[in-house]
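Submission sheet (multi-component)
Chains listed below:
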Amino acid sequence: MIIVMNRGASEESISSVCERLEKEGFIIHLSRGVERTIIGAVGDKTRIDRSNLEALPGVEKIVSILQPYKLAGRDFRQEDTVITIGDVEIGGNQVQVFAGPCAVESWEQLIESARAVKEAGAKILRGGAFKPRTSPYAFQGLEEKGLQLLAKAREETGLLITTEVMDPRSIEIIAHYSDILQVGARNMQNFFLLKELAKIEKPILLKRGLSSTIEEWLMAAEYLMAGGNNQVILCERGIRTFETYTRNTLDISAVPIVKQLSHLPVIVDPSHGTGKWQLVRPMSQASIAAGADGLMIEVHPNPSEALCDGPQSLTPENFTVLMEDMRKMARIMGKTL
Amino acid sequence: MIIVMNRGASEESISSVCERLEKEGFIIHLSRGVERTIIGAVGDKTRIDRSNLEALPGVEKIVSILQPYKLAGRDFRQEDTVITIGDVEIGGNQVQVFAGPCAVESWEQLIESARAVKEAGAKILRGGAFKPRTSPYAFQGLEEKGLQLLAKAREETGLLITTEVMDPRSIEIIAHYSDILQVGARNMQNFFLLKELAKIEKPILLKRGLSSTIEEWLMAAEYLMAGGNNQVILCERGIRTFETYTRNTLDISAVPIVKQLSHLPVIVDPSHGTGKWQLVRPMSQASIAAGADGLMIEVHPNPSEALCDGPQSLTPENFTVLMEDMRKMARIMGKTL
Amino acid sequence: MIIVMNRGASEESISSVCERLEKEGFIIHLSRGVERTIIGAVGDKTRIDRSNLEALPGVEKIVSILQPYKLAGRDFRQEDTVITIGDVEIGGNQVQVFAGPCAVESWEQLIESARAVKEAGAKILRGGAFKPRTSPYAFQGLEEKGLQLLAKAREETGLLITTEVMDPRSIEIIAHYSDILQVGARNMQNFFLLKELAKIEKPILLKRGLSSTIEEWLMAAEYLMAGGNNQVILCERGIRTFETYTRNTLDISAVPIVKQLSHLPVIVDPSHGTGKWQLVRPMSQASIAAGADGLMIEVHPNPSEALCDGPQSLTPENFTVLMEDMRKMARIMGKTL
Amino acid sequence: MIIVMNRGASEESISSVCERLEKEGFIIHLSRGVERTIIGAVGDKTRIDRSNLEALPGVEKIVSILQPYKLAGRDFRQEDTVITIGDVEIGGNQVQVFAGPCAVESWEQLIESARAVKEAGAKILRGGAFKPRTSPYAFQGLEEKGLQLLAKAREETGLLITTEVMDPRSIEIIAHYSDILQVGARNMQNFFLLKELAKIEKPILLKRGLSSTIEEWLMAAEYLMAGGNNQVILCERGIRTFETYTRNTLDISAVPIVKQLSHLPVIVDPSHGTGKWQLVRPMSQASIAAGADGLMIEVHPNPSEALCDGPQSLTPENFTVLMEDMRKMARIMGKTL
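Outcome: structure written.
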């Protein structure tokens, strides 16, 4: 940690910062420049709240040197984390596609989607039972009934299932039915939810928040890991920018960055990331080409009748074409699908 | 609602959109332009999910005409909502200042802050018992112990108290101790939390999300109101932009905009909005000058020892000066403090 | 164009808007809803300034239906524009790589870069002679001397050359030396520059502005085309967002979007788009996979000695590897390189 | 400057960075931490391009300690810069209002606006003769004819005049007619324009770019000052964010920040900053309350007939009311108007 003192900070201020740091166990390196004094503090940053130091008299700014996350970082673990559920591996050599409808609406809609997903070669079915909606007047999901339908679809197709959890009180029931629990973008910093999810023994798919930096995203993963759950899958799903043509701006550069900073698997959701089904195929290709470990794709048997997110859903036919393309793309990346 | 059809959309697509709209109870106005056909749909938009229409063949885009919120809007209620707790009015002619430490740390720290707040003339004490922290290794709050200290400080000073709620499971206990319950920026779209808070009979202070549009913010208020709780206070606390000099960019224009679109009271938090105590005074002045109904200010007896948000906290002395300035500013706005 | 009137707009306001529109040659469709009246105006929007209508009494908002660009749009020209210079085609079946140093620094540096670029298989040499720099104290380019070195490098290698133009007064001389003229992100809306470039007969590479929407970018292309220059190559180079890990956020979704909305070729600059050489390769792959017509890559014989943008420049060795990868990627996209 | 080395950077890399820095005249302070080595470099940062260092082997990141601007900074000049033109002072105790139409359209429109501006008590008339327009089909200004009308209006009213310059080739003629030359948001980093404007002896009003950080804005001022023109007035005019309700997000916090970092005067343009005339009054009040040295306000005798920016223009009546309010606001800030 580097503490930059104000121009003309008094000797008293400088000593007082140094004393404080030494009290916290840091080793101090003092650099006196022509204009400013700079204090280098070597030690474990997690032991002090950097913002307190900023409030000390004479301090201009604090610069962190080490990353604030530990368990989620490459420094902690060099090799890639591979999450294994039955014969499905996430983060390894296999590109995994999570596909299915935005929301579970009925048995017919779900099973038709599930069969299409299965036939096209994907191994994980997605579907929302509890839905976060901007409007209180929009469809909020089938709740437990939806979970039961998902479980039944798993039984019929052999697909793994993943569904979103939004409320700490629903973790138990969702964990009962689902193979993977998904934390949505709006809940990426719902710390109480994360702390509870840290205690269960199922993988967590952690979506990046709408306006979260990569560092904040990895810190949310750190909440899960610090609490005991190392099975974290990261999912880039678009960030909020000034551009209004797309629902969000899909930040594909997050894929190679996360691969560099962290050992956790990272997938991309081009359906939410763009909000337009016509962009799903090119952005899926781009994601795999950038090194993503998988994709999350919305598929609906009849997008124009969908109770949610119709415009970004693929038909089963389009999904089949997409899977063909992804197979080729996986191959030149040295992976399989 | 306006449905813009693609250039060259077939007659079949056009009729199919019209039929769908009529089925949903809309009245249709068809405009055939040289290049595109446009369908005007008059009726209650809350009855249809606009995104489904976007997925119909031939549809290029949907344009909403009416605001998606009802109860939170000025159209629904012309006069300003004034929330009354004892002799404190929020949203009326009195500028209200919510002040106190970021987090409750100890009885001494809290009561010293509370006395300073009281002496300077503010009527509402803020203080966090449950704290949302980016890092799992940072101080997470005193939890129920903190609530008890807040209640004790209310007893000693007569100040009202407000504190943050982050978890549906803590609503009952927080509502037991606190006069106003605060929803933080990260939870603005935690819809399960909002639905539960809609059922209680205490005012809710709803902070704007880091990257929430004003419309989404009012929709979050709509969740509370649609569920039965009309006592909503909005709080602008800065949005996330590309500028890194400040912690957030305080969007003061949100104040007159909310006043125009909604009847709800709106206050401003320049402490979080800027992250720097030196900016708190000018931005407080600007907020009142823009028409804000109040302010939320972090005050700490010793900012450099604070367990959270020290750099943006005022000392009791600086807070007293700020209150003097606010009194003058309130006066020229035709209000009191 | 749709004009949405205020709730309770008077009959007088409504007629006055209609009259104004009719005067401008629009055909009017009136829809009276329960809450609001909506006026559809069919005709040529380019003939009226939409913002004036917004200032008429009773008008709440104006919604555009047609795209504001004509010549740059797919509606105007269905087939892809292919720009041909000698045997080099941009926008066709060949993926084109523009490569070279950020700035021309010396003959040795330039020719070494150019040879590396040539050997690796690229056909266009980039290099800045006039450099836009945030600081007045940074290296500003070799100016005409740099242009002469570029021309000499073309002679020796047979590569085409492209360089940036920032000032209308330098167009003539730059057009004299360079095969393609580049407009940088900071000048995308330098309308005087665009108007002058519209008059020359060389292709223009138009970078997307730091915070330009795709529509504004296409409108900048429209300036060139409306003035007579149809040889426009668009270049996505990253937009400004809240994320600070990368220099910019490379918006790869812009590639398929531009391909949909426009017939112009679009390339991607992952060097500026990320600011980090380690991200150049994965983002180049992603760009080609998303359908880009080419890439712009910074290559420097000795990045740590570069006078500008060293951290985002590839060494000749790394560039050679990248070109190998791009060849494979082009192949599965049905293109050549 | 602080150079943070990679975890496990070799001794060779460390020495090579140190040598490079010493060669450039820096004094070196080495701190060896458990995980990383940090190199403090004391000296004149303007002498080295920081980005080259980032490209050296083993370097993880560079952290600047000193601000990159010199002449524009408070460190260089402690007291406020006051710009004096005749009896008008900008940056001193007088709040200055620059007002007038977006574009000069005709003599009648201009003189009517000018008289209204004058009567309401403002001293500086604004009006565009050369207009930057997103669309090539929109009104582009009366050009020299417009300048002549402005000069004639000055003669009739005694107001100072300010108008925008967009092209280095027009500087001479605009400087001939205008008292203050304005650089628009889109040209804030048009460095060739800035370099030429640095050579003239008239004050420059420098608008903040749409997505410029405060540091980049001060660096643009530095271009003017480094070239010899110290008469720089900064103008905050809104930044681009995700919020679409307003045309831009007016960043009022930029006012106290600039006052802290720089000695230059800073004014605010709430007309462009919001795009809506209804927001101009509250945001003007907020600007003065935050410490702004003045305002730039669009006034048009008939906003709905304006050839540009009608919706954000005040009528003369509304402007008169605004000036009354500003007078009161100036008074409590200890200033006059």
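Remark: Chain A is about 35% helix and 20% strand.
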